[in-house]
Design brief:
Bound molecules: adenosine-5'-diphosphate, magnesium ion
Strand order of the largest sheet: 5-6-7-4-8
Distance between the termini: 49 Å
Length: 436
């Protein structure tokens, strides 16, 4: 099956059967004439061409982009009858088809650190040894931490080896099931899901409290596992915590290996941002990358959103992206997040990290360690909370706001040439923002 046919198959899942049969089924893809940036389809009838163009070409282009990673222009033209008939055969859907995967989700593009090392190694070893290493492999963790990325990275490897890979969500699986029940084609449903080589189901927690589909999924699972086919599942929590799951499913989810992904630590976040900049051809200086990594909490998807926002703004406004510009663009986003960070949280985190008591930070003690801790706390409170200088002065037991302003100036000077001090502040800010 060529990419054009795969895209039309994928489109089938997104539109109604009537629409598909009326307009899309008869399209044929010209694999020879199409290029990486131009996809040529032939329609059999001049009347429908405009309709197809208006209604579906954007969707088709989007699916191409998911599949190939690059933007294409979709061209739909009329083909004479003889060859149209010939190519009609070619688009006849096959029973088992590969799923569309995002080609940029690769192991190479995935930055590894302590937080995701375990999950990464587990998926990697499954991708090298399908069906034999860990089956099922169950990856769980919070939103935007790379579960789908890792799962599809394995999927891409399998597809490149010629294996039939199905990647689906619980919702798609359910819709597919309902469609086949309605069309009385359950045999085809079972053929599709039980005969594939690899089944990837994303966000399996949505099976919770859906008894009918749990039953169907159970049989699919048994059939695949019984024939040594690889299953990879992701969820937002450990199987034990999902709830509303049949006991037999829950226990099977733990049969293979359960691996978690934790929020990335600062260095990993920086590496991810650098990678995303490289992929999206966005140029950011080190201090901007640092700033984004420290102030934005650990959801990587959010970081990506910020990069494209920065890129778009700078293009629209014809300005280079510098640190002030970045701070300005991110202002609202950050303010919202920080609404719940208070000065106690900050001093407690700093105190714990430096092995002193929070009350000592607010005391008048002048030992080197205390001054250091106090400076850091004041600076972070100023950066992360909405408190005014007089409020800070009162909180830290200082005479008045000029004392605070003096401290902040001192810290800004230090930040310019003391790399260790800066790293410490970045680390602590990261800790505080990711725990809030
Ligand atoms: P999840 O499925 O856990 O919600 P995704 O896999 O969709 O998260 O990841 C969200 C985005 O963040 C994706 O674009 C993904 O490429 C990116 N991402 C997450 N973790 C990493 C990582 N360690 N290295 C590179 N990109 C990452
Ligand atoms: Mg996901």
């Amino acid at each position: 099956m060529n990419i054009g046919q795969e895209v039309l198959e994928a489109l089938k899942e997104e539109i109604t059967e009537v629409e598909y049969n009326r307009y899309i089924k008869h399209l044929s893809y010209d694999a020879k004439k199409s290029t990486a940036s131009l996809a040529i389809f032939y329609a059999h009838n001049a009347i429908v061409i405009n309709w197809i163009k208006n209604k579906y070409s954007e969707k088709i282009a989007h699916l191409f982009e998911i599949k190939s990673g690059s933007k294409v222009i979709v061209q739909i033209t009329l083909k004479n009858r003889v060859s149209a008939q010939k190519s009609k055969k070619a688009v006849e859907p096959q029973k088992i088809t590969n799923s569309l995967l995002n080609q940029s989700y690769t192991f190479d593009n995935f930055m590894v650190g302590g937080s995701n090392q375990f999950a990464y190694s587990a998926v990697k070893s499954v991708s090298e040894n399908a069906g034999n290493a860990y089956n099922p492999l169950f990856i769980y963790g919070g939103v935007g931490l790379g579960k789908t990325h890792l799962m599809q990275a394995a999927g891409n490897i399998f597809q490149n080896e010629g294996k039939v890979v199905i990647y689906t969500s619980v919702e798609q699986f359910l819709n597919d099931f309902i469609r086949h029940v309605r069309n009385k084609t359950m045999d085809r449903f079972q053929e599709k899901y039980r005969k594939c080589d690899v089944l990837l189901i994303d966000d399996i927690q949505f099976l919770s409290n859906k008894e009918g589909i749990q039953e169907e999924f159970f049989h699919t699972f048994e059939a695949l596992k019984g024939t040594g086919k690889q299953i990879i599942l992701t969820a937002d929590k450990h199987p034990k915590k999902i709830g509303g799951l049949e006991a037999r499913l829950q226990s099977r989810f733990e049969w293979g290996l359960v691996a978690d992904i934790q929020p990335p630590e600062l260095e990993t976040k920086i590496a991810i941002i650098e990678k995303k900049c490289e992929i999206n051809k966005v140029k950011l200086s080190k201090d901007i990358i640092n700033y984004i990594a420290t102030v934005i909490d650990s959801n990587v998807r959010e970081i990506e959103g910020i990069l494209s926002k920065l890129h778009a703004y700078s293009q629209l406004m014809h300005v280079d992206i510098d640190l002030d510009f970045t701070k300005n663009v991110l202002k609202d986003q950050i303010r919202e997040k920080r609404a719940n960070i208070d000065m106690d949280t900050i001093t407690q985190t700093v105190a714990k990290d430096l092995n002193i008591k929070p009350s000592e930070i607010k005391s008048k003690g002048r030992s080197k360690n205390l001054v250091y801790a106090r400076r850091i706390s004041i600076y972070i409170c100023r950066e992360l909370t909405q408190n005014t200088m007089p409020q800070l002065a009162q909180y830290f037991g200082m005479k008045d706001h000029t004392a605070i302003s003096h401290t902040i100036k001192k810290i800004n000077d230090l930040l310019k040439d003391d790399e260790d001090f800066k790293t410490k502040i970045d680390e602590l800010t990261n800790k505080i923002t990711s725990n809030s």
